[in-house]
Amino acid sequence: MNLKFYDRKLLVKLLSLLSVVRGYNILVLIAAQYLAAIFIFSENKSLRNVLLDWHLLYLVIATVCVVAGGYIINNFYDDKADRINKPLKSTLDDKIKQETKLSLYFLFNFIGFTFGWLVSWRAGIFFGLFIFGIWLYSHKLKRYPLLGLLSATILTILPFFVIFIHFKNFSKVIFVHAFFLFFVIVVRELIKDLENIKGAVVNNYNTFPIVYGETKTKQFIFLLLILTLIPVSFLFDYPAIQYMKYYFYLAGVTLSIIAFYIWKSNTKKQYQNIHNILKILLLIGVFSLLLIDKSLLLDKVINKLK
User: Fold this and answer.
1) Alpha-carbon separation of residue 224 from 5, 194, 210, 277 (angstroms)
2) CATH T-level assignment (fold) for domain 1-169
3) Cα separation of 244 and 255, whole Å?
4) pLDDT value for 292
């Protein structure tokens, strides 16, 4: 009986840890970094060379550890807000003590910084600044409307920036992809702010909707959704995206629906639905990288398996 009790308790602790570090997001991040490395950043390298690139592996491990640490410190500072915005998740997160969370935060950051330093001193400095940036955002910047919005978006994109620098691929299409991703993530952050207004009030966060109101926030979202069409139009002129163009068709339709639906929304549940649709769209975008150039898929994967 005692053994079963401890097994169950350990399982609950593990589930709580996965909830705190958002295990699902971590898995998606790993997939996104490797798929981007294989199909975007390393056009002239074979699949074998990319998968056996130890420096790439170290960068992915460093990123995962730092991002996990970021989720922990964000969870720590948002404890009061999460009890209002996410009561069920907050209940599960409480199975791990705050002291334990902080210990794990320092451990993950130490591991992340160490693996970055193993790649180069420049990578070590990058991850040191990344750690500081996440802490600064969680502790201070998220309390301000524009600074919080921009810093959250930049911190979300940085894991791809480090892979981009590693492969030194400065193709124009990569920058256009980045602009599209930037606009979509800003929209997602604004919708999260609309979804979590009550918790922001409790924590005295001056988020965009609180400072400028829901109507102006929706107008800004609508403007950003229009701006996403600019990089998409450039990408359609780039022949290498091939079958990934269907993802951008899907994205265009989905974002148009969101633009319409956002005006009708005024409840937490409605904003939550829009947020979930955007998360699914971004997830599909990750795996649609497989379609960016069928010749790359044939050369790097299928032919290697024969």
Assistant:
1) 51, 15, 19, 17
2) Tetracycline Repressor; domain 2 (1.10.357)
3) 17
4) 66
